[in-house]
Amino acid sequence: MKTLVTASWVIAHDGRSHVEIPDGAVLIDGDTIVDVGERAELDRHQADERIDLGDAVVTPGLIDLDALTDIDHLILDSWASPELAAGFTWSTEYFAAPRAVFDAAQRRTVREYALAQLALHGITSYMPIASEVHSDWAETYEDLVAMAEVSTRLGLRAFLGPSFRSGVNVIGADGKRTVRFDEEAGRRGLADALRFLDHTAQLADPLVTGVLLPCRIETLTPDLLRDAARAADQRGALVRLHALQGMSERDYIQHTYGRTPLQLIADSGLLSDRLIVPHGVVLDVHPEVLGSDTGDVAVLADAGVSIAHCPLTNARYAHNLHTFAGYRAQGVNLCLGTDSFPPDLIRGIDVGTQVAKLQAGDLGQGHLTGYFDALWTGGATALHRQDLGRLAAGATADLAAFALDDFRMGVTEDPLRTLVLNGTARDAVLTMVAGKVVMRNGSIPGVDLTALRRSRSAAVRCDARGLSGARLSSAPGERTLSAGISTVVPGGR
Asked: Which of 125, 352, 389, 445 has its CA 20 to 30 A from that of 344?
């Protein structure tokens, strides 16, 4: 089946970079792009379906490599007072007797809601952040089998695996943060993760790729890190590890293991072009560490590690990358993630470009082109999928489109600049994966968004009651929000 998508602007790839085509078109045959060019030229092709988006910009599908697929606790814990520095963290009492707040059916509903949000915001490929705050430990094999089923039904491209960890951050009665370990739980988690890799191999579903998603670096023993690295190497699997994201993480690892988190990653054998690190903020160049370059960024670049930069979440936590331009200049592959709600990569780019200007003290240093390159090409590079992140003949037909016709959008001098400055990802009017429409004009085929919203609201109320009863944080002076959830300043995901 051939489909012709037309709009006032198309962002094509000419083999070297992304280029803007006014009054453009994308011709798709099945799941593959056949041609991209001016509408007048492609209009002559016979097409089984024509999708005319009018005044809109058609782009490669958005790639989110730290996607929220859970209830977002940032709406609570990013507003704590500066004197409370422990984080949204388990208490020692909860560690001793953890319990899952949601049952399996509720977890499935929560994930369906979150995945629908990705589609509504133009995201075509995603790698989820772990769902652990309200669990009895981490994710399970069964959780991810169910998530893969929901994701495929919606039509999104997923890079999935159950989270696993051998420890968890806790706050003791003295208000101090540490990590408590259950090594057997960590081994079971890795076994679940490997079992899920086998499951995805048997599925042979082009929309589901199994990956290894260990939790935060301080919650994994060196032995578990080495075992994960060995398994990834044997299976050729991608690994994403939350690391280099907070001073508490760095201080804990240095105190416990006598090395920096980056050195621990290197010692584990994880440093390779299969590793994706969300955030990657706390390196020698960061002002809170050394404020000077002693080689950390070069280590990442030389190994081919990808940094999943999450500019919107970083700004909310006042913990920014130093710097986007500096990492790029040294050859680090930067990709993007949302890490929180809303899953709005357009707002993320807006915030990232403004932070870059502030850091440089120069209006010309916003790096808008670099951010879009990270969103598309950087994401494809991190995933080892050169068929993604570009609109060009032979590429996979994953694309998104954003309306520019709202009076409030203002004048379109340049479609991407206008979208970033005046719009958001909520302006998405089309999400297409492998040539199939996943979302059109705010509707997702087969999904009752109103009913799903009601189900999610009920789950949030359940979550609030469950977490309040669990008393996740017992730090002195903690504040209790109206929902009944105890929370203090975050330490990052």
From this structure: 445
